[in-house]
Amino acid sequence: APSRDPCPCDLGVLGRHTQGFDIRNRSRIGIHSSVSATMAAVPAPFTWPEFKGPSSRVVKAPKTWQDEAILIPHECIRWWDKELREVLKTFDATPGNEWKIEALFTYIVDYFASCVHHHHDSEEKIYNPWIEAIIKRPVDKSIKPEHAELMKLLDHVATFKGKILSAPQSEKNTQVEEFKKSMEELFVLLENHLECEEKSYPEALYEAKVTEEEDGAKVGEVLMSMGMDGNMRFLPVVIYTMCEWKGPKEAFEFLATKVPPPVQEEFKKSWLKDFHENQLQVLAALKTDTPPPVPNALAAPFAWPQFKGPSSRVIKAPKTWQDEAILIPHECIRWWDQELREVLKTYDAAPGTEWKTKALFKYITEYYTACVHHHHDSEEKIYNPWIEAIIKRPVDKSIKPEHQELMKMLDLVASFKSKILSAPQAQKEVHVKEFKKTMEDLFELLENHLECEERSYPEALYEAKVSEEEDGAKVGEIFVSLGVDGNMRFLPVVIYTMCEWKGPKAAFEFLATKVPPPAQEELKKSWLQDFHNNQLKVLHALKTDEPLFEVQPGCQPVCCSVM
Predict the structure, then answer these.
(1) Could you tell me the pTM of the whole model?
(2) Cα separations in angstroms, 180 against 117, 156, 186
(3) What's the pLDDT tens digit per position in 121-153?
């Protein structure tokens, strides 16, 4: 689930306000509210829906509070089902649609499954034991086994993300069809289950002869059990769908009179924004081919990439922080390798392209080699001694000799600059050919090396039983060892490539929560500009025949060549 700023309306405050509070009754102890017939709509960054009536096949025209009580959560579930059914009509795993896979499963896990799970869990642990103790029988014998089946199916649905992302392209749509079939089974089972409950719960409430106030107090316990994060996901959907099945006036009255004041404040301050950005906008985007806006996207002089999934041959769908930890530097290295491969396809040192040779080797030396060198050096001097002292063995015996070979090849690559520039034209072509072969050998050795590490480091971390915080502290030492200049070169690539392998939202969250504030400030102030000018623009120029220019302080926009 996405991390958010600490909420001033903590559960202790919520608990004090829900004591003696009835979520379904209009009054709270010591407080009486009346709502005018012309009650104003709650301001929101979207349009509240108009009245349509319940979507229930059982309670089509609720007459009593017992009828309405069960519709409050059930109309939310049917709304999610309807929206996801629409999304799935056009969902496939066509290349370029990787962002859809990430966005859809993030939505299913963080919002849909999370809320449905909690609803059924709270029935089992809070609501049913209370009502069944009064009526001396189960509300309905089918409810408990259906809950178990639904929870199993919800968990099963979430597993398809990894299956789809890790499958070869030719098999992805087979996995998509299986996923859609599982989702349809879930929707049908859910609808039948909701129908059963909409017959049995009102009957149980009539039989129990409980008051609306007593029932509301028990639902208040359910509200508490959701916590602030759960309520942030569920309550906006409650009010949104209530506009549809009961009417906007009644929905806003419900919010004003039956929801604790601290929750109302959070609802207006940030939860409606979250609902708009992470539910409505995501669902709308998933029905089209346009990625949704990224909440809190970092301003940059370039476009952040969309999710594609990891380029790793080993970790195709990371499941744990141990998997993700090694991908952070490795996806950067593979991005550099891929970009340089593209550059080398057309690089030939032809007459008049000396600027390409100078720019290419400047980039290789100051950015690519510098960062790859430091990554492997910090493994040798900081990370490996720490983890190996815990597990009492090498992470992998091949790592150290491969590091030495890689460092030697990186140094060899740099030596080709002077050979190419100083050679007669006929000889230049020979050196370019040797240079390209050396680079390809380097790329292949690097990929094999990364593959080895992506098997061995997660295993070592599991074996060491270190926490994510302990690992993060050690990575923090590496961060410091890079220095300001090293971080200027590396950190923008970390965030840029993380947008691709983990998604923009996760990348910006990583930046906000895992990177020290001073580095965040430098990134925004100048490092992103450096990344744009000295990495993205340089790489783009090297793939074309457009000479590279640089704007020097005090110069006009058209200036002398950078080289």
Answers:
(1) 0.75
(2) 20, 12, 10
(3) 999 999 999 999 999 999 999 999 999 999 999
